[in-house]
């Protein structure tokens, strides 16, 4: 479902990574680790079609990834930055947007309680703390249908309960048959991953 063959990205005069092969099948999770600046976000951007590798080829769902393609975005859920955050909307309105865009029915109460946002359900998200904002972004990325899930540093700003919830979200995504790739240093996510790529 996701393959990378001999991937390399040249950053200026030095290779961030080179000769990287990977494969993530449906129902599997690949965790990317490595120090700051080692290329984890860059590799995720290659999987989402935001950036071309300098060398090698990426295939996602049988074709070249292209974030500009609506059909691709409907099958691939990516949380790579905070851009899907609407400060003027409440969590309920965020979920309405997801439900309307994807034509799915969502149990708002259950999802918001699960995310620990039930008391913030009707507060505009611009007033949220960093961790609440991250919970809302993760909720938006996972409440919709997807076959591939790409997450960059999903544990950022989350407290212990939030990290536990995140681990459950990823486990659910994997058991529903999605191919999941995440850049993370959260030990439970690393230990449950099927593959780990260390970008050193
Ligand atoms: N095409 C490019 N040309 C020049 N520099 C690049 C290119 N692509 C990435 N870089 C640089 O390479 C580094 C890799 O950044 P990236 O965000 O992928 O690392 P990361 O492992 O996700 O880091 P962090 O753990 O800090 O989030 C950055 O310094 C980035 O500016």
TrEMBL record:
Organism this protein belongs to: Prauserella endophytica
Domain ABC transporter: from-to ranges: 2-200
InterPro entries from the UniProt entry: AAA+_ATPase, ABC_transporter-like_ATP-bd, ABC_transporter-like_CS, P-loop_NTPase
Keywords, sorted A to Z: ATP-binding, Nucleotide-binding, Transport
SMART domains listed in its UniProt record: AAA
Name under which the protein is recorded: ABC transporter ATP-binding protein
Recorded superkingdom: Bacteria
rRNA processing listed as a keyword: no
Record-stated family: Belongs to the ABC transporter superfamily.
Cited PROSITE patterns: ABC_TRANSPORTER_1, ABC_TRANSPORTER_2
Any GO MF annotation of the entry: ATP binding
């Amino acid at each position: 479902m996701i393959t990378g063959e001999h991937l390399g990205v040249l950053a200026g005069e030095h290779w961030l990574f080179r000769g990287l092969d990977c494969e993530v099948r449906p129902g599997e999770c690949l965790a990317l680790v490595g120090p700051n600046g080692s290329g984890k976000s860059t590799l995720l951007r290659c999987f989402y079609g935001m950036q071309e590798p300098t060398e090698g080829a990426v295939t996602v769902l049988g074709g070249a990834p292209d974030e500009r393609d609506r059909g691709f975005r409907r099958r691939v859920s990516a949380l790579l930055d905070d851009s899907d955050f609407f400060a003027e909307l409440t969590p309920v309105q965020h979920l309405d947007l997801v439900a309307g865009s994807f034509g799915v029915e969502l149990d708002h109460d259950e999802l918001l309680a699960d995310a620990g946002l039930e008391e913030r359900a009707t507060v505009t998200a611009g007033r949220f703390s960093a961790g609440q904002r991250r919970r809302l972004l993760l909720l938006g990325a996972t409440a919709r249908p997807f076959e591939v899930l790409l997450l960059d540093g999903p544990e950022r700003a989350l407290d212990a309960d939030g990290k536990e919830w995140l681990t459950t979200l990823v486990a659910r995504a994997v058991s529903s048959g999605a191919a999941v790739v995440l850049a993370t240093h959260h030990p439970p996510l690393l230990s449950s991953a099927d593959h780990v790529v260390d970008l050193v």
